[in-house]
Amino acid sequence: MDCIFCKIINGEIPASKVYEDDKVIAFNDIEPQAPVHILIIPKEHIASAAEITDKNSAVVSHIFEVAAKIAREKQLDGFRIVNNCGDSAGQTVKHLHFHMMSGRDFGWPAG
Ligand code: AMP
Ligand code: ZN
């Protein structure tokens, strides 16, 4: 499948990995929008948050456990987790991913 994140998972494309286990990997975003900008993704190819069902949703809670673990390890003083789902929301890579950003102040509401 022509999916850039699947290629990172199978090692075809390099990434700066922060965390990996049998279900997920986390790596630094190539175009960081904050001093800390990590992408946490399932190893299973799920196209977007709109494709989450009762069959595959367990990985989402695992991703949030991993986010909390990364925050503890990096002693992050607050962080923002973002998921862009669909073109209108700005999703450019069609493999489910959660942006974990920290190290600056974030405005709200988001633009
Ligand atoms: P989104 O726009 O929500 O789909 O986010 C996709 C993210 O993937 C963007 O923040 C990109 O900078 C990031 N990205 C794309 N290709 C790579 C790559 N090879 N390594 C790391 N991050 C990437
Ligand atoms: Zn994929």
Description:
It is a single chain. This protein has helices spanning 4-9, 58-73; strands spanning 17-20, 24-28, 36-42, 80-82, 98-102. The protein has 2 helices and 5 strands. It has 111 residues and is of the alpha+beta class. It has a 5-stranded antiparallel β-sheet, covered by helices on one side. Helices cover 20% and strands 22% of the residues. Adenosine monophosphate binds at residues 4, 13, 15, 29-31, 39, 84, 90-93.
Total count of strands: 5
Kindly state the percentage of residues in helix.
10-25%
Largest β sheet strand count, sense and barrel closure: 5 strands, antiparallel
Overall SS class? alpha+beta
Shape: globular
End-to-end separation in angstroms reads 32 Å
Secondary structure: elements and pairs:
Layout: H1 4-9, E1 17-20, E2 24-28, E3 36-42, H2 58-73, E4 80-82, E5 98-102
Antiparallel strand pairs: 1-2, 2-3, 3-5, 4-5
The chain binds adenosine monophosphate and zinc ion (ZN).
Brief sketch in words of this structure:
With 111 residues, the protein is α+β, with helices and mostly antiparallel strands.
